Amino acid sequence: MTVETLPARYRIASRAAETHDTVTLGLEPVDQPIGPHLPGQFTMLYAFGVGEVPISISGPAGPGLVQTIRSVGAVTQALCEADPGQVIGVRGPYGTDWGVADAAGRDLVVVAGGIGLAPLRGALLAALAARDMYRRVVVLIGARSPDELVFAGELEAWRAGGADVLVTVDRATAGWTGHVGVVTQLIGRAQLDPAAALVLVCGPEVMMRLTARALCEHGLPPGNIRVSLERNMRCGTAECGHCQLGPLLLCRDGPVVSYTRAAPLLSVQEL
Ligand SMILES: Cc1cc2nc3c(=O)[nH]c(=O)nc-3n(C[C@H](O)[C@H](O)[C@H](O)COP(=O)(O)OP(=O)(O)OC[C@H]3O[C@@H](n4cnc5c(N)ncnc54)[C@H](O)[C@@H]3O)c2cc1C
Question: Are residues 15 and 69 in the same domain?
Fold first, then answer.
């Protein structure tokens, strides 16, 4: 193991429940921090004695890290249940970033499905911090139900910061007065300018495939659509091959990939 692949120790400084199975952790370095990161990149988080998983950075640049984790198995459960003060290991940052500044002078559009909003949150915060650089900042969010909406407490602040935020849920619950339906239905309502939009998409693979197709039907060139692809990752440094998808090693060539490159690969199942 080379020095760069050794985990740095980070202490959990804060823990906020987003939904019944998802938490956002604030992490502070115990010793030397990992290098600077860009929105869309990920780290390998190590719950000591349990295992290591790739998790996107959901917060802005800074010495600390903000990461949002959904409990789906042994490692993510251990991370979600970790208490403030507990120390975990962090490697990275790894992978490609969203390239938010490429939308300068144009419209930045983010389309999120479920926990897919976490990898996009850093891009959105970066755009809102430099709001004058962009014509429009548009956020389209789909969640299974109102209870499954992550960062629900931040939507008004994003609107106040100059973003057009539209939300839809697959299933409404009592008290929900918003849109009901899949996230692709928001594309028509957002009145996007196909000639001037850079669209960042993250969510379950089927959602990204259908969203990218719908965007193309609205006239978006595939080269102006970027998706974040997930495959099982182990090393994070393009050595082990676990995350291979066609010609790509996604820990190095992804997770953020142009839809031009991703389209033929999106139907390839993980073995
Ligand atoms: C680049 C990247 C960024 C990610 N960012 C986040 C994030 O910000 N927040 C978050 O909650 N999760 C994120 N994930 C997914 C996360 O890594 C997996 O949920 C985790 O590895 C599951 O490990 P486990 O030991 O808890 O569960 P396991 O027992 O390993 O798996 C539980 C279930 O999750 C599925 N699964 C395992 N790994 C993945 C994966 N990589 N992608 C999709 N499904 C998987 C398994 O097939 C199984 O159904 C990201 C994955 C990648 C590759």
Answer: yes
Confirm if 96 and 254 have CB atoms less than 8 A apart.
yes
**Candidate of 57, 76, 243 to mutate for ligand 1, largest count of ligand atoms within 8 Å of Cβ:** 76
Q: What is the mean pLDDT of the chain?
A: 95
Residue 50 Cα: closest atom of ligand 1: 25
The type of residue at 62 is G
262's tokens: 């991703």
- Specify which residues 199 forms β-bridges with: 109, 225
pLDDT tens per residue, range 158-207: 999 999 999 999 999 999 999 999 999 999 999 999 999 999 999 999 99
Ligand 1 centroid from CA 165, angstroms: 27
Residue-wise pLDDT for 130-165, tens only, equals: 999 999 999 999 999 999 999 999 999 999 999 999
Across 10-35, average pLDDT: 97
Indicate whether 73 and 138 sit together in one domain. no
Residues 253, 160: Cα–Cα separation, whole Å: 35
| Residue closest by Cα to atom 31 of ligand 1 | 73
Q: Does the residue 271 lie in any domain?
A: no
77 and 136 co-located in one domain:
no
List the residue whose alpha carbon is closest to atom 19 of ligand 1. Answer: 72
Q: Find the 231 Cα to ligand 1 centroid distance in Å.
A: 8
Residue 255, preceding peptide bond in cis (omega within 30° of 0)? yes
> Are 77 and 132 within one domain?
no
162 with 231, same domain: the answer is: yes
Residue 226 C-alpha to ligand 1 middle, in angstroms?
20
User: Which pLDDT score is estimated for 4?
Assistant: 59
- Structural domain boundaries enclosing 199: 100-265
Query: With a threshold of 0.90, does the pTM exceed it?
Result: yes
